[in-house]
Write a structure and sequence with these properties.
By secondary structure, the chain is α/β, with parallel strands linked by helices. It is built from ten helices and 18 strands. The strands form four sheets. The protein has an eight-stranded mixed sheet with strand order 1-2-3-4-5-6-7-8. A six-stranded mixed sheet has the order 9-10-11-16-17-18. It has a two-stranded antiparallel sheet with strand order 12-15. The longest helix has 12 residues. The structure holds zinc ion.
Length: 344
């Protein structure tokens, strides 16, 4: 089964951080961070539904204006998630423009902004074009266990880390897939049909073996049949969903390392910042960033399958292979300089 989520670093390893996650079978696009998004077409921007912003340093948030520019005048909702005070930053961005004619627009554009606080308390504020983007408090909540988005096909967990300001890291997990074996269906004389959706739902919901599944199809005698879930065991296989981690702009501290490992443990792919080479760890510490070596060590500790370092400092332009090699050496895993182009 192909994974549902397809991640791409929009600006490569040296450019502004933006991880674009396209979802197979669904039109929507998710972004982690919102640096420059000039490479996204207007059509792609219209598919954006969720944007997870680690923190509001300019290289992580300057792309908001382009999204706003493209979406004004269209009927659209975009959900944004960010650290404490994030709703105020969105408000300041929006109030930098004049909206005196906004009420006359036919379509409404809404940004639904959720702040994630270190205690996992949340605050959600809406900004609608037709209301001149005045803030409207939606309410406060709690992201239990760090779960900030519980979608039909994926879940997003967050962790609040330290970059001398609260900085969010994210883990995006696909909901498990249920694959159907058509040959096994044929052996049982069962047709393909809408009933398979009920079967998948029952399996993912952990239904008991004696649950009766109703099959309705014209090719069956009497047009329908009932069968217990337990009798269908050979018909399906559960494949765990893909897990993708996104970690950027954190100081190399024991608390941050612990927080990252807890969040992204066992991920299939970890996108992790590695702005400085190992020898420049003093500089990295001064700027509250990781080195290549720290990024590799964290990926190893979190038992990641594949690590994708990014946010390389421009001071190392032309040294990408060296930086990848340093991460790989610390990771001692599957990241080699010759791999890792797929998602960059
Ligand atoms: Zn930063």
């Amino acid at each position: 089964m192909r994974p549902l989520l397809h991640p791409t670093l929009l600006n490569g390893r040296f450019g502004d951080p933006v991880l674009c996650l396209e979802t197979l079978f669904e039109k929507q696009i998710m972004l982690c961070d919102l640096g420059t998004v000039d490479v996204l077409s207007s059509r792609e921007i219209q598919r954006i539904e969720h944007v997870f912003v680690s923190h509001a340093h300019i290289d992580h948030f300057i792309g908001f204006d382009r999204i706003l520019r493209i979406l004004v005048g269209r009927e659209k909702q975009v959900h944004l998630y960010g650290p404490p005070d994030f709703a105020d930053r969105v408000r300041h961005k929006l109030s930098g423009y004049q909206w005196n004619l906004a009420a006359s627009y036919l379509c409404d554009l809404a940004f639904i902004v959720t702040e994630i606080h270190p205690s996992f308390a949340t605050r959600t504020v809406s900004f609608r074009l037709k209301n001149g983007f005045a803030p409207e408090e939606i309410g406060c909540g709690f992201a239990a266990g760090g779960l900030i988005l519980n979608g039909a096909s994926f879940r997003v967990h967050g962790a609040v880390l330290d970059h001398r300001t609260p900085c969010l890291a994210f883990a995006i997990t696909e909901v498990a897939h249920v694959n159907i074996w058509k040959t096994e269906l044929a052996k049982l004389g069962l047709p393909i049909g809408p009933w398979l959706h009920d079967l998948k739902r029952a399996v993912l919901g952990g239904a008991p073996d004696d649950l009766k599944i109703q099959i309705e199809a014209p090719e069956l005698a009497n047009g329908s049949r009932e069968i217990e879930l337990g009798a269908l065991r050979n018909v399906y296989k559960i494949t765990p969903g893909q897990k993708i981690g996104y970690v950027t702009d954190i100081g190399d501290t024991p608390d941050n390392r612990r927080g990252v490992v807890q969040l992204v443990e066992g991920a299939d792919i970890l996108f992790i910042e590695a702005p400085f080479i190992g020898a420049d760890r003093a500089l990295a510490a001064e700027r509250a960033h990781l080195t290549t070596v720290a990024a590799g060590e964290i990926a190893r500790a979190a038992k990641i399958r594949h690590v994708e370092p990014f946010h390389f400092s421009p001071r190392y332009a032309g040294q990408e292979q060296r930086m990848l090699a340093e991460v790989a050496e610390a990771f001692v895993g599957t990241c080699r300089p010759e791999t890792g182009h797929k998602y960059a």
